[in-house]
């Protein structure tokens, strides 16, 4: 026996895994007993550690420390913890380790204690109507908390309820829902509610349910249709941009979708395009509108053919059907319309100077209301120059006064007036017409010399030229170019003078032969380019001066006296210097005259009735005061019969010997009222006479009239008092006697 080989010893300290079913209700329940053979029974102390003992969850497992029995003290849940790994220890009574720690694994065995759970309570899916069978719509999904490696978590899906027709099917393993039959029609049923079930144990275990909602998406498989075949509407004439009425349609497709939205077209009955039809996006109705004004008198009713179709074309699978048509009858209601000027503006042409009362046009309007009897009246709404008058019934326009040109009321040669036409309906309607009148230019003015006098040298080719200019009050083409020529009635002038054209408004007068110094009067004939042309003979006063070496006049006094038309620089300078000198002298003279007027007024007022003189006295230092009694022969005024036209006129005794004398007495005035004109003519003749030096003395004005009702000048103070004398008649003698009238009146 001593030579016998080593034998194997069975040891209870090695513990295999222990399985225990979850939800075990008999507790405490002995799981296993561990033992160590290192000591005799009763000499070993056992203990365990780990989850369920001294770690969370606490108190699930326990051990008898003397016997080594391990007990289950609580129900287990595999879904919370499917296994527990513990450590077992063996110590002697003195606390010395007898065995190495060993593992104790407790496996929790699954039971079918959990129902399947769907991921959501309601599943939603969409599929177009008319989808083919087998078209998958959606997938429902459920889970099971039990052990997936057992049948406890083997799920199977099914449809418990989906309505009368089984239009859908479900894959039992995957939960995918697909169409099962053809004929899905949204217009018949737009939504399907399915009740689906999930069951474990391969369909034989615990179950749960959920809802699957399937919506059918619309396609355009239904064309729109009119609710009736005829529609009637009414609209007022002359209305534009207004809605006439609506046509109504019905479409089975989904409201608001492109398959439902209608599009209308006017096929017949509106060749002028007076109507349009649009779609109301909210109601899908067709709204008929007027885009062009309608005229009841032209057409009082319309019959339109309207079609309708969807914006989106029909699906090929939709049943074929003809286009929907409807008849729309529109009646045009008659209303009062305003008069109309068919020609607006009316343009006419009138010659300037047309006499008042001349008819120039008839400007009338027409009333569109031909089915109503109405009367139109006319009035001038705008006539700024008050040139026109208008017949209120016939509309005839006449001139009220002569049409003048130019005028501030003309715009580019046109006169604008406004005519108002009004009917007799209540309330009346009116229209305004524009009358544009072109004032045509008439050649009624002959050209005029710009300056009828001038100075030039008397030698040909050496300053012997003078630039002549002319103006014409007429507008083109009745004005320039002007034609200048010497008077044909005096052909002898052509021996010494010539006129050549300078431009369209000027000509050059030239000396052909050397002429003596002195004044010359040249009759010229001026003609314009109008139709017919206007011509006029005018007198040109030319002063021929002594020529200097440079061709200018040496006689500055003569040039200044005949001012203004010379073209030489020297003449212009002389005229300018003389003008400045005259202004200075006039200012000095005005000061002196003012002082002498005061003295004259005082002397006249204080003159005695006995201080009468049968003579005309000179004041203001014009002749020598009261000592100058010889300047005039008063007998010529007292006895006109002694001085006839054949007699030699009196000689001015204070004039220089070289001064000329008048050629003869002028025509006597016919009445005392012509005294002012008689004096003015004499003054103008004296001022225009170049042979009279500018002596500061009065001139003889010849015979002043006979049989005058006016008293002599000396009778002004002949009355007893100023209050007894009426001096107002002096103001009727002209401006030269108004000063006396102001002093005594």
The CATH architecture of the domain at 228-333 can be given as Sandwich
Strands, count: 40
Give the amount of beta strand, in percent: 25-35%
CATH superfamily of the domain at 228-333: Cadherins
What composes the largest sheet?
A: 4 strands, mixed
Shape, per Cα inertia axes: elongated
Count helical runs.
Answer: 5
Could you list some keywords that capture this structure?
single chain, 745 residues, mainly beta, Immunoglobulin-like, four-stranded mixed sheet, 40 strands, 10% helix, disordered N terminus, cell adhesion, Catenin-bd_sf
Short description:
The chain is mainly β. It has five helices and 40 strands. Among the domains are: about 20-110, Sandwich (Immunoglobulin-like); about 115-215, Immunoglobulin-like, CATH 2.60.40; about 230-335, Cadherins (Immunoglobulin-like), CATH 2.60.40.60; about 340-440, Immunoglobulin-like; about 450-545, Immunoglobulin-like, CATH 2.60.40.60.
What does this structure look like?
This protein has 745 residues and is mainly beta. Among the domains are: 18-109, Cadherins (Immunoglobulin-like, Sandwich), CATH 2.60.40.60; 117-217, Immunoglobulin-like; 228-333, Sandwich (Immunoglobulin-like), CATH 2.60.40; 340-440, Cadherins (Immunoglobulin-like); 448-545, Immunoglobulin-like. 10% of the residues lie in helices and 32% in strands. The chain is built from 5 helices and 40 strands. The longest helix is centred in the last third of the chain and has 38 residues, at 569-606. The model is unreliable at 1-10, 557-572, 602-632, 642-664 and 714-721 (pLDDT under 50). Pfam families: CADH_Y-type_LIR, Cadherin. Its main location: membrane. It comes from Neopipo cinnamomea.
């Amino acid at each position: 026996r001593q030579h016998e080989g080593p034998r194997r010893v069975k040891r209870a300290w090695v513990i295999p895994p222990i399985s225990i079913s979850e939800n075990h209700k008999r507790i405490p329940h002995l799981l296993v007993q561990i033992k160590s053979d290192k000591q005799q029974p009763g000499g070993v102390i056992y203990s365990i550690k780990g989850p369920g003992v001294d770690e969370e969850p606490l108190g699930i497992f326990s051990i008898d420390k003397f016997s080594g029995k391990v007990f289950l003290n609580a129900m287990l849940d595999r879904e919370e913890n499917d296994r527990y790994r513990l450590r077992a220890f063996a110590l002697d009574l003195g606390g010395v380790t007898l065995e190495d720690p060993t593992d104790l694994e407790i496996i929790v065995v699954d039971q079918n204690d959990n129902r399947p759970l769907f991921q959501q309570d309601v599943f939603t899916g969409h599929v177009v109507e008319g989808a083919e069978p087998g078209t998958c719509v959606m997938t429902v999904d459920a889970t099971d908390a039990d052990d997936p490696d057992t049948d406890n978590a083997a799920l199977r899906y099914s449809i418990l309820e989906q309505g009368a027709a089984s239009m859908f099917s479900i894959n039992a393993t995957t939960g995918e829902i697909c169409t099962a039959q053809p004929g899905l029609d949204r217009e018949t049923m737009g939504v399907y509610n399915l009740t689906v079930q999930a069951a474990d144990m391969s369909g034989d275990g615990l179950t749960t349910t959920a809802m699957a909602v399937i919506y059918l998406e619309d396609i355009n498989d239904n064309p729109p249709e009119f609710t009736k075949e005829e529609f009637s509407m009414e609209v007022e004439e002359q209305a534009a941009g207004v809605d006439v009425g609506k046509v109504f349609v019905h479409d089975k497709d989904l409201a608001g979708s492109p398959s439902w939205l209608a599009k209308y077209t006017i096929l017949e009955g509106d060749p002028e395009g007076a109507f349009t039809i649009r779609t109301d996006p909210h109601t899908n109705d067709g709204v008929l509108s007027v885009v062009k004004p309608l005229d009841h008198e032209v057409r009082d009713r319309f019959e339109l053919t309207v079609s309708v179709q969807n914006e989106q074309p029909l699906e090929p699978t939709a049943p074929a059907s003809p286009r929907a048509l409807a008849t729309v009858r529109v009646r045009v209601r008659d209303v009062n319309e305003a008069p109309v000027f068919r020609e607006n503006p009316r343009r006419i042409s009138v010659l300037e100077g047309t006499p008042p009362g001349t008819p120039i046009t008839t400007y009338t309007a027409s009333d569109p209301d031909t089915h109503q009897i109405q009367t139109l009246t006319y009035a001038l709404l705008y006539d700024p120059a008050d040139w026109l008058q208008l017949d209120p019934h016939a509309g005839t326009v006449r001139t009220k006064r002569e049409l003048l040109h130019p005028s501030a009321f003309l715009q580019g040669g046109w006169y604008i007036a406004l005519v108002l036409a009004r009917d007799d309906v209540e309330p009346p309607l009116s229209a305004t017409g524009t009358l544009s009148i072109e004032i045509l230019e008439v050649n009624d003015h002959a050209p005029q010399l710009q300056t009828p006098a001038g100075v030039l040298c008397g030698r040909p080719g050496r300053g012997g030229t003078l630039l002549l200019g002319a103006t014409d009050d007429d507008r083109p083409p009745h004005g320039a170019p002007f034609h200048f020529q010497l008077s044909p009635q005096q052909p002898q002038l052509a021996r010494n003078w010539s006129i050549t054209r300078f431009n369209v408004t000027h000509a050059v007068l030239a000396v052909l032969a050397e002429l003596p110094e002195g004044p010359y009067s040249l009759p010229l004939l001026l003609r314009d380019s109008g139709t017919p042309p206007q011509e006029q003979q005018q007198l040109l006063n030319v002063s021929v001066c002594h020529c200097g070496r440079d061709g200018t006049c040496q006689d500055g006094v003569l040039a200044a006296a005949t001012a203004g038309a010379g073209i030489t620089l020297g003449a212009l300078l002389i005229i300018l210097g003389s003008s400045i000198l005259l202004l200075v002298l006039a200012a000095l003279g005005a000061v002196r005259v003012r002082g002498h007027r005061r003295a004259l007024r005082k002397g006249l007022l204080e003159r005695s009735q006995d201080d009468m003189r049968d003579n005309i006295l000179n004041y203001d230092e014009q002749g020598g005061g009261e000592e100058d009694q010889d300047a005039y022969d008063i007998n010529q005024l007292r006895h006109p019969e002694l001085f006839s036209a054949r007699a030699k006129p009196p000689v001015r005794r204070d004039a220089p010997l070289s001064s000329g004398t008048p050629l003869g007495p002028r025509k006597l005035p016919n009445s005392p009222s012509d005294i002012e004109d008689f004096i003015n003519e004499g003054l103008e003749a004296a001022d225009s006479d170049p042979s009279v030096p500018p002596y500061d003395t009065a001139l003889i004005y010849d015979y002043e009239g006979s049989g005058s009702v006016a008293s002599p000048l000396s009778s002004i103070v002949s009355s007893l008092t100023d209050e007894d004398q009426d001096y107002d008649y002096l103001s009727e003698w002209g401006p030269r006697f108004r000063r006396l009238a102001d002093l005594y009146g």
